[in-house]
Structure formats: C-alpha cells, structure tokens
Amino acid sequence: MSLLVEEGCSVVFMCQNMTHDGPYTEALQQLGVEVWWQPWARYLPHWLAPHGKKFDAIIVSRHYVLMPLLPMLRELAPQAQIVFDTVDLHFLREQREAEQSDNHSARSTAQRTKGIELGLIRKSDLTWVVSEVERELLRPLAPQARVEIVSNIHSISDDTPGFDSRSDLVFVGSFRHPPNVDAARWLALEIFPRVRAAMPAVRLLLIGADADASVLQLDAIEGVQVCGHVPDLDALLDVSRISLAPLRYGAGIKGKVNHSLSRGLPMVATRCAAEGMFLVDQQDILIADSAADFAQAIVRLYGDRELWQRLRAGGLENTRRHFSREAARSTLRTWLDALPAKPAPAGA
Fold first, then answer.
1. What single DSSP character describes residue 235?
2. Is 235 exposed, middle or buried (0-12, 13-18, 19+ CB in 10 A)?
3. CATH number listed for the domain at residues 163-323
4. Mean pLDDT per 10-residue section of the chain, whose length is 348 residues
5. How many CB atoms lie within 10 A of CB 201?
C-alpha cells in the first residue's frame, strides 16, 4: 500500500472484521491510506453502493475473503479490475501438509481449497502469486488466467552487527500457522539436541505469538526458550547468530526467510522454506532437509566466520535484487500503466 501511495494512487483499505486495529490502523493512515471501519463501514454492500463505482481496481487478499465478496464486487463496482492476492497458494500448502501427515481428511480439505482457489483465479481479472514456482504450477491448471508475481517486500539493513557480536539461534513464526508449529517441534525435539551435543552453551529462541501447549512445552528442553511475541523483532534478530527455517511443508515465499536475510542474518533452511526465492545453497543460505544434516549445517555455520560473512552478503544481495521495494515497484508500475485510463473531466 505504501508503494501504491508513492505511485500516486488513492488507496482505500478495509479489513475483513471492519475494526479499527489501534496502532496498525494509525500506521496506515500515516502512510496516506484512507481506512474505513465500523460503524462508518459496518455493512459492506451499503458502503459499496455509493463508493464502488469510483475504484479502478480492488485488491482482495486470500481466497476465503474473496469468495463471498466477488459477486458483490462485480455488481457494485463493475468497472473495477478485481485482483486476487493469493498471499500463497493455500491448496499447495494443505496438500503438502496432508502428504506430511498422511491424512486422508487433510487431502480432502486440500482438494476443496484447490477447487475454490482455481475458481477464483479463473474469475478474477488478475491474480498475484509470490513466486515463479506458483505461477508455473498454475499455467496448466488455469491456462486462461492472468497471473503475475508480486512478492514479499522488505527494506534492506546492511549495517547490522557482525559475526563476533552475535550468539544463539532463532526461529520466528506465528504459531497460528500449522507449518510453524510442526517446524518448531521438529527443530526443538530432533534437530536441536544434536546441535546442543556439539555446542552445549548455545540457546534456541522460539519467537512467535499464539503458541499452543505443544509449543509451550518445548520450553522445558534445556537450552530452548519459548519467547512468545517480541515487539521489537529486529533488535532480537540483530544479536542472533543464525536464523532457522526448518519448514517441512508450506507454500509461497516465507517472510521469516526474507526478513532475516534483509537484516544480514544468515540462515539454515529446508528446501521447502527456500522455495521460489532464487537462493543458492552455500552462497546465499545453507539448505538441509534431514534432522542430522540440518544440525550439522547449524554447527558448521555457527563457528565459521568466513562462511557466515559470505552468506550474509549473498542473502542481502538476493533480497535487494528480488524482494526490495524497488523490485516490487517495477511490477506495480507495469500493472498500473495497463489499467484503463479515466476519461478527462468535462471542460478539461
């Protein structure tokens, strides 16, 4: 939204629950975004009736938000281009979770989600995905759909502390997201004991809100600290030596990977966590998929200053090239330039 404002757009934002979300709402307003909430926008059809026809485009994030809205948007804002921002392909994540757990019910859920998402992709004027992997996946499934890549956007911080000023390991992720729960448990129960055997003093910090009992109990493991939500995450990342992303399933571009690399914090990640991000093993990141290999990579990187510095430089450059504001600005400008021009006002 910040980039759209900078490009001269008048941006209006509504969240699904129509609430004022305190400092987050105020932050959007400070960017120049017009934010609506109840009671002024209590019932969306009533709000759209007088306002819908002034929009050139309407961007809706996530399939479960767009699905009930699409017919209403077509009726009350018929001139607007409908952009489906997938965030990630939910059906792909659910398919991988079903494969990981070998759960028949989860497979059925993934198939239902796939039908919904593909239907919305076909009916929308434009779909945004976050990686070339997802765009290629959609080509045979929705060949007539217009699909573009608008990925995560991060500011680059290349002046953060160096190797000698850092210690410990960090994992970041909201625990409302099942892949993060699975990753944290696999990390703490199967990977970290191997690391601890080689480096008895190292700590593992698990960062993220909404931890359930299966995550909270990991705090009892020696060296593991379940920290919950950390208001100033950047400050913690800047004193940690390695960030970890041991995701065994998921989809899309992983914000935890982008964020760490954008702050010059090297990572060890699974192939799933690094998917679609143009990351090169041993150059930008270390990739490992088994518990033993993941632990070995952590121990190696933790003690190798030269490797750490090389990965730091590679991760920063990767983020700058593919996930910076300027990288996203180019894609958004192309889209905005292609929108139908409004007729000039009478008498102009």
1. H
2. exposed
3. 3.40.50.2000
4. 93 92 93 92 89 96 96 96 94 91 91 97 96 94 94 90 97 94 98 98 97 97 96 96 96 90 98 94 98 99 98 96 89 89 48
5. 8
